[in-house]
Specification:
heterodimer; A: 439 residues; alpha/beta; Rossmann fold; Coagulation Factor XIII, Chain A, domain 1; 2 domains; six-stranded mixed beta sheet; five-stranded antiparallel beta sheet; 20 strands; 22% helix; globular; B: 284 residues; mainly alpha; 14 helices
Chain lengths: 439, 284
């Protein structure tokens, strides 16, 4: 097919763990000697796949192993996977920052990659000078930059400051300017890492909009790595799941995201302290475990529409005398918060004797129940928090720590069988009266 | 489909086993604007942080010349073929400084730019090339100082420029290439094994004394110290000085040896650099 923009063939990348010692040198020599004699590369048979949870015996780890796929021109492809699945490595190889250990990538057109915004910005130089410098680093010629100069300044909204050294810019302006330069790259392929994690919400929207325009209107190919399923699903028409350095699934974004979220890869219904990724740590309390429990089947990620979802949060309180309030947020697939709840007396339907009082040191378990007949048949995620003494600054945060899906049982489907819209599907009170006999 | 794909045209192939001699010089040419912008950046950011600005460039050669004149001429009384000591030492110092700056700065190019190299691709060679060009600015300023001194001594009849002065641009280019080549080799080797970085500053000092800067090339020739003759910088410095102040002579064998050595070192440097640049990000 002629409209393939990127062809990845048997791509592998190995990393050496630990120090470079004499072992490295002798292995390099051995490898060279084997290759010189036209034999198979001995390197390719050692090492193991990159699973960070399992302790390996080899100091060679395959960050990517034998990956092949084609990307059609004009596609926007999202690359998703856990930390350490090889996403960044793939981007690095595509951006030619590092080279593959084996295999190759063939590309049609120019690649512009944005692993970071503002690479090479120099604080002493003015906005104008930095636009040219950064543009040139990203591979633009001088007259290309000149051509887009006004548009770049306009997009970034820094017109008044364009002749001021960027060290005097606010961090927001800095990021906006940096992204604006990249947005006007005249390349057929755009490779983007999670640069959108910076900047305010409005600007993030603007960036997503720009990238959307780039892929749909201008027909350019976009590769996008993100943890933000919302961004991936808005921007990308196709997606790839990487797992332990191998390609697990490639297909339409909605299918792939659904698979990813409901896969065990994403979660298993319970998670313990060592696997919980904290966005913020607290010196007062820490998570021990978080579980999703079905009353009939125990720990699970699949709940039927007619059963309660029991969320258990086990946590350690480190010191005596502080109030610790566990809190849970329910999110939809796109990361929108559906509700936030916590254990305080005025917001819960029962009386929790440990809420609102200072706790003694020790391990506690709080249980929160989402009622049956409340959620829709969709995928949901939860974030968990431990708030000491009502202080948001000191709380422990873990975002999107577990996910689960609600499965239809048919019991609400006796009258209507079509698609049921809405993020929730509560069973509510309904009553009808007949007011007139004639109208 | 498979048959078709064999004939398809690809703009870029990223492969694991790239040819050692594929130096991507075409890429470098494409990024020539970046080279110029880098040079500008170095220059602007250098003088923006200082009070005296480019004046600092003068201070180093003046001090070195004064110290050399006092120690090697007055105290040690090293024979310099009857030349004016100030002019003799300054000629050597200014030329040597350019070479040593090129080498020193290019020898840490991977370490200094690790963060930017780790984030974006552009031909890595742009960075060392921009260093060599930036240093040219500094050299230009110092060279001006030397010219002022030279004009003065011409009037007093103590300097005798001759036709070999025309080799000046060639000498500068050769010194730049030699400094670049050696720097590339060193930076490539220090990415994996850091120890070498410590040897460099020490080695540079040794090399300076093995180059005819505080003595004319005739001295080691008379005494048969072959190592100094095999130093590729020797022929360059001697010719530079001979052209401008007329001390010493043009040793054609030394000069042509230097030319050959510069190119050999440069090609070696480029190949080694090219080999390492591909995945130095993983090792640095």
């Amino acid at each position: 097919m002629s409209d393939v923009a990127i062809r990845v063939e048997n791509l592998s990348k190995a990393y050496q763990l630990g120090d470079f010692t004499t072992g490295t040198l002798s292995r390099d020599l051995h490898r060279w000697w084997m290759l010189m004699r036209g034999k198979e590369d001995p390197f390719l048979n050692i090492g193991e796949t990159n699973n960070r949870e399992v302790k390996g015996d080899s100091d060679i780890v395959w960050s990517l192993k034998d990956i092949s796929f084609d990307i059609q021109q004009g596609d926007a492809v999202g690359i998703i996977g856990k930390n350490g699945a090889g996403k960044s490595t793939l981007l690095k190889i595509l951006s030619r920052v590092t080279s593959p250990t084996a295999g190759n990538i063939k590309v049609k057109g120019r690649i512009a990659s944005l692993l970071e915004v503002g690479t090479g910005f120099h604080p002493e130089l003015t906005g104008r000078e930095n636009i040219f410098l950064n543009g040139a680093i990203l591979g633009m010629r001088k007259n290309e930059i000149k051509q887009h100069f006004d548009a770049i300044v306009d997009f970034a909204g820094v017109e008044r400051y364009v002749d001021t050294p960027v060290k005097r810019y606010s961090s927001g302006m800095y990021v906006r300017l940096a992204f604006a330069v990249a947005a006007y790259l005249e390349s057929e392929i755009l490779v983007v890492d999670e640069v959108l994690a910076v900047g305010d919400a409005e600007f993030q929207k603007k960036c997503l909009g720009k990238m959307n325009e780039v892929s749909t209107n201008q027909g350019r190919t976009v590769l996008f790595v993100s943890h933000n399923m919302g961004a991936v699903s808005t921007l990308c028409n196709k997606s790839i799941i990487l797992k332990h350095g191998s390609l697990q699934l490639m297909g339409a974004t909605s299918t792939v995201i659904d698979r990813y979220i409901s896969s065990n890869e994403y979660n298993s219904g319970q998670i313990y302290a060592d696997a919980i990724e904290l966005k913020q740590k607290s010196t007062y309390a820490g998570f021990h475990a978080i579980r999703l429990i079905s009353k009939s089947r125990g720990v699970t990620t699949d709940f039927t529409i007619n059963e309660q979802i029991v969320i258990e949060v086990e946590y350690d309180v480190y010191n005596d005398g502080h109030m610790i309030q566990p809190s849970v947020h329910l999110l939809d697939v796109l990361g929108t918060c559906i509700f936030a709840t916590f254990s305080a007396a005025s917001v819960s339907s029962n009386f929790d004797k440990y809420a609102n009082v200072p706790l003694k040191k020790g391990r506690y378990k709080s249980t929160c129940i989402i009622p049956a007949h409340f959620l829709n048949d969709k995928n949901y995620r939860i974030s968990a928090f431990l708030v000491p003494d009502n202080s948001m600054d000191k709380m422990a945060i873990t975002e999107s720590v577990l996910s689960f899906s609600i499965v239809e049982t048919g019991e609400m489907r006796k009258e209507y069988t079509g698609e049921w819209i809405g993020v929730v599907r509560p069973k509510l009170y309904w009553d009808t009266e007949r007011l007139e006999t004639e109208v | 489909m498979e048959v078709n794909s064999a004939n398809e045209h690809w703009d870029l192939e990223i492969r694991s086993n790239d040819n050692l001699f594929n130096l991507h010089l075409k890429d470098v040419w494409h990024y020539r604007d970046l080279l110029w912008l880098m040079v500008r950046r170095d220059f602007v950011s250098f003088y923006k942080q200082t009070v005296l600005g480019p004046l600092w460039f003068f201070i180093q050669p003046i001090f070195t010349t004064i110290i050399f004149t006092i120690i090697f001429s007055r105290v040690a009384k090293i024979d310099i073929d009857g030349a004016t000591p100030v002019l003799f030492y300054m000629a050597g110092t200014v030329a040597w400084n350019y070479f040593s700056d090129c080498l020193n700065k290019t020898s840490t190019v991977f370490r200094d730019n690790a963060s930017i190299f780790g984030k974006v691709y552009f031909p890595r060679l742009i960075m060392p090339l921009s260093i060599v060009c930036s240093n040219l600015v500094k050299f230009g300023v110092q060279f001006l100082l030397f010219i002022v001194l030279l004009v003065y001594f011409c009037f007093t009849g103590q300097a005798h420029p001759n036709w070999y002065i025309l080799l000046f641009p060639v000498i500068i280019v050769l010194m730049a290439l030699l400094g670049l080549g050696l720097g590339l080799i060193i930076t490539a080797m220090t990415t994996k094994y850091r120890d070498l970085a410590f040897v460099v500053s020490f080695g540079m000092q040794l090399m300076m004394y093995a180059t005819p800067i505080i003595y004319p090339l005739s001295t080691p020739l008379k005494r048969g110290h072959s190592i100094i003759v095999y130093n590729p910088m020797s022929g360059l410095i001697e010719t530079f000085r001979y052209g401008f102040i007329g001390t010493g002579q043009f040793y054609s064998f030394a000069f042509f040896y230097s030319v050959v050595a510069c190119f050999v070192v440069l090609v070696l440097g480029l190949v080694v650099f090219n080999k390492v640049e591909k995945d130095f990000v993983d090792t640095v």
